[in-house]
């Protein structure tokens, strides 16, 4: 996914920090479903949709709703008329959002590449940049956060956090219970041997 942004700059929401090196972009975008949100704080349709998208994003990524964030990243591609308008809009949105800098020529490149002619538009991409959904606005309105599971499957995104946690738990369980299992096995063997001796002794006496 970082290949889409090679040589470009993304801004961290509400901060002046730039996410521009390949390593930083890889870390921010790797193994994630990417949403490109083409919108504007002044557009009436965007003003109706943006709160829904904000809630959608938070329910998948905010610890208030989930134990750990879903493999999801959103980049805001602005059609705001001024930088102040873009900044004011982003201040009302989640901090995890990224944004293409205001007035960057890359905005037009993205609009042409993904055939975005009107806003709001949400383009859903696989980690390799392939399109999953050309415009997911209606799907998000209709289905809500549940549609992320379909995107995740389509993108073949590996939920590494889950796998790592699961593997760690398995290893922990094995390391803790193995000595108990071995001890139980030894006890069972001793019991079995004693029973065998008793049985043999009984047969001899008879």
UniProtKB/TrEMBL annotation:
PROSITE patterns: THIOREDOXIN_2. One of its GO terms (cellular component) is mitochondrion. Pfam families: Thioredoxin_8 (PF13905). Residues 1-142 form the Thioredoxin domain. GO terms for biological process: photoreceptor cell maintenance. This is NXNL1 protein. It comes from Psophia crepitans. The lineage of its organism: Eukaryota, Metazoa, Chordata, Craniata, Vertebrata. The gene is Nxnl1.
